[in-house]
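Reading a protein record of the kind used here takes little practice once its layout is understood. The reader may check this reading against the record printed directly beneath this paragraph.
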Amino acid sequence: MFARRALTAVPRRIISVRAYSEGATGSTRSDGSSDSFTKREKAQEDFYIKKHQAEQIAALKEQLAKQKTQLEELEKTIKN
């Protein structure tokens, strides 16, 4: 009728977990205080963001200038 199978025990794998503590490891502190490293890191990030935004604005201004010249050319062709 039904075939019988022998049940085998599957060995369990051991998993180790490393717990990290807050503090000198560079993780965010819960009390909100900051040290010179986090201030320097934030300043570098802010500098990068401002530089990137300035590049984007320069590219947009260049596109705007191209569009203005194209618009002027189209207006000249319409008038003539």
Summary: Residues 36-79 form the longest helix (44 residues).
